[in-house]
Amino acid sequence: MKTHLIQLSGILSMLLLTSFAFGQQKINFQLLDSDQQFPIVGVSYSYGSQSGISDAEGRLSLKWEEKTILYLNHVSYGRWFLSPEKILDAAKTGFSYRKETTIGLQPVSVISIKMTDEKDKKIVLSDQERLHHDAGAILMLNPVVSGIRKGSNFAFDPVMRGFKYDQLNVVINGIQTANAACPNRMDPPTSQVALNRIQQVEILKGPHALRYGIGLGGTINYIPEKPNFGSNPGTYGQISSLYESNGNIWRNEGRVGFQGSNYDIGVLGSYSSGSDYQAGNGEMIPGNFKRGTVGIYGDLQVSKRDLLQVSLNRNFARDVDFPSLAMDLRTDDTWMGSVFHTRTIEGQRLVSWTNSAYFTRVDHLMDNLLRDLNPRMVNASTPAITQNWGLRTEGTWTFEQGKLYAGIDHRSESAEGSRTREMLMGPMAGRVFTDNVWQDSNIQKTGLFANYMFTLGSSTLNASTRLEVNQAQALDPAEEFIQLNPDTKNTQINPGISLGWQHSLGKAWSLGVWAASVQRSGSLLERYINFLPVGLDPWEMVGDPQINPETNNQIDLVMGFEKEKVFAEVTLFGSYLTNYISSVKTDLNPRLPSSPGVRRFVNLDEALKAGVEVSFRHQIIPNLSHSLDLAYTYGEDLGLDAPLPEIAPLDVRYRMMGQFVAGKLQTGLNFRFVSQQNRVSEVFGEGKTPGFNLIDWDISYPLFTNLLLKGGIQNILDETYYEHLTRPIGMNKTPMYSPGRNFFLMLSFKFP
C-alpha cells in the first residue's frame, strides 16, 4: 500500500510539474491562407495580457495562458478568434488556416442564395436559397432593401435607404451590368441576373464601395461561385423545381458541369411561368409571366499562374403583366457575356492582376395589345434596345499590414427606341404617330480608382477614392427636345472619396465609422427621356442633358458585438445631399391627351436621408437559433420642408430556426412587421399605406443523400396587404395587392 502511495504521489508531482512547465511554455504556429497556403502577414492579435502582430512568415509566438481566447484581426481576413482547444491544435500541427474575406470593412450585408457543401456534408437550405426568376426579389430577404413593383410577379426594382434606379450600382462580379431598355423599367438590371451560379450577394450600404463604380446610395454585387477544379475528371450538376399554389407558379433551374484539375465548364438553364394570383381579400391580380435563361460557362487554369473565366447567357421574357402601367412586356431578349483573366504573381508586393471585359444587349418590346380595353382608343407599342460594354484592369498589392486594390475601368451605356401610336377612334383614326423616346443616347464613363486597407494595432483603416469622367450625348435628338435643350452633349468629372475606421473595443465589442463624399451624373433616363410617363405619377417626363451631378455626403456609424453564440450590430447613417436629382411640374404640353402634364428632371438644392438598421443573431441551444433584423429610413426635401417620395416604412423581420434529426430536418418560422407609412410626398401624389403583419413557415429534409425536399406556407394568416413602393393600378389608384396564402413545394437533386 505504501508503495502505491509513493507511486501515486510521484505521478501527481510529475503532472503538477508538467502543468507548471506547460503554463510557461511558448506556443508557436503559422497563420496560413486556406486557399493559397501562403503566410498571413500583419495579423494583429490580443491574447490575455499579450498582444502583437504576426511576423513576415505569418508566425505567432505566445506564452500559453489556460482558458484564454486568442483574438485576431487582419485587413483581408476580418476579425476572428481561436479557442484554447484550437490554439493547442495549431501548436500541435504548427498551422492555423483562415479564408480571405473583406466584407467586414464597410457597412455590408451578405445574402447567401446557393446550397454549399459544408465540411460535415449536411444539406442546409434557407429562405434565401429558393428558386427565383428575378434576382431583384431575393434582395428583399433583407429589410435594408425594399422594391418598387410595377408588375405583380416580375421586375422588383431595388430601393436601398431611399436611393433607387441609377443611384444604386448593380453589378455582377464587380463589373458587368445592364441598362433597362424599357423606359418604365420593366427590365431593371437585377432582372437580368441569372442566379444559377451566383453564390452570394453583397449589399454594400452607402457610397463607400468606389472600387466597383459610383453607387450614390449603395452597391449590389452578385458574386459567382469560385472555380471548382477536381483532382480527377468528373461530372456534376443539379436540377431543382418549385411549385407555388397561389398563381400556379412553376420555377425550374439546372446545370451540368465537367471538371478536372485545370478546367470547370458547363451549361445552365432556368424556366419559370405563372398566372394571375389571389390576394388575401379574394381579389384576382393579373400576374402572367414567362421567364427563362440558357447559358454556358468555363473556368480554365491555363497555367499555374493564369486563370481564364468566360460566361455567356441568353435571357428571355414573354407576355408579362404590368397592371400598374399602360402597357405590358411582350418580349425581352438579352445577351450577356463576360471574360476575366487573372494572373497570380509570387514573391512580389503585386500579388495578382485581373483584366476583364463584358457586353450586354437588351432587346425589349412593350405594348397594350394584351389589354382587354372596351373601347380601345389606340394601339401603342415601344420597341427599345440598350447596349452596355465595359473594360476593367485591376491590380492587388499586399503589404505587411495592408492591401491595395487599384485600377482603371470604362463603361459604355446606350439606348435607342421609339413609341408608335396608331389612333383607332375619333377624327384622327388611322393616323400613326412616332415618338423618339430614347433619342439614340449614350453615356461613356471612364474611372480611375484605388482602395487601400491596412491594420493599425486593433484598428482597421479603409480609404477609397474614384475619379470618373462622364461623357453624354444624343445622336438622334427629337426636334421638340432640341427646342427645350439646345445642347444635348455634356462632359462632367465626378470625384469620390470614402474613409473608414473599424476598432476593436476589447474582446467582444467593435466600433466602425465611415465618411464619404461621392458625386454622380444623371442617367440616360434623367438626361434624355423624351415626354414619356415613367415616374411615380402619370405626368410625362422629359430629361435635361445639362443637369448637374448630385452629391451624397454621408456618415455611417456601426456598433458591433460578437461572442461565440451571439452577434449584434446597430448601424446609424446620415446623408446630406446637394443637387439632388428629382423632377418638377412645368407648363409644357404633354404628348398624350390622357396625361395631366409634363415634369422635367431638375436638381433640388438640399435633401436629407437618415436611418437605423439592426441585425441580431443568437444560438439559443445547439439545435435552435433566432434572428432579428430591422431597417428604417427618414427622407426630407429640405427646400420644400416636405417628405421625399418613395421611402419605405419601418420593416422588422424575426426568424426562429431549428435543426433536428441529426441536423437533417431544417425548419423556420418567420414573422414580418411593416408599419404604416404616413410620411408621403403630396407633390408627387403619393398615397399613405397601411401597415401589415406576415407569418411564413418552411421545412426541409434530405430524402436521400442528393435529394432535398422543402415545403412551406407563405402568408399563413392570408393577410390582405401591399408594399408601400408598389405602384397602384389605373387612374383610380387601386392597390396592387401582394399574394394571399401560398403553399410551396420544392425538390432539388444534386449529383454526384
UniProtKB/TrEMBL annotation:
Protein topology in the membrane: Multi-pass membrane protein
Keywords: Cell outer membrane, Membrane, Receptor, TonB box, Transmembrane, Transmembrane beta strand, Transport
Pfam families (alphabetical): Plug, TonB_dep_Rec_b-barrel
UniProt keyword Flavoprotein present: no
SUPFAM superfamilies in the cross-refs: Porins
InterPro entries, alphabetized: Beta-barrel_TonB, Beta-barrel_TonB_sf, Plug_dom, Plug_dom_sf, TonB-dep_rcpt-like
Domain TonB-dependent receptor plug, first and last residues per copy: 139-217
Organism: Algoriphagus marincola
Cellular location(s): Cell outer membrane
PANTHER family the record matches: OUTER MEMBRANE PROTEIN C, TONB-DEPENDENT OUTER MEMBRANE RECEPTOR
Family that this chain belongs to: Belongs to the TonB-dependent receptor family.
Residue span(s) of domain TonB-dependent receptor-like beta-barrel: 251-716
UniProt-recorded name of the protein: TonB-dependent receptor
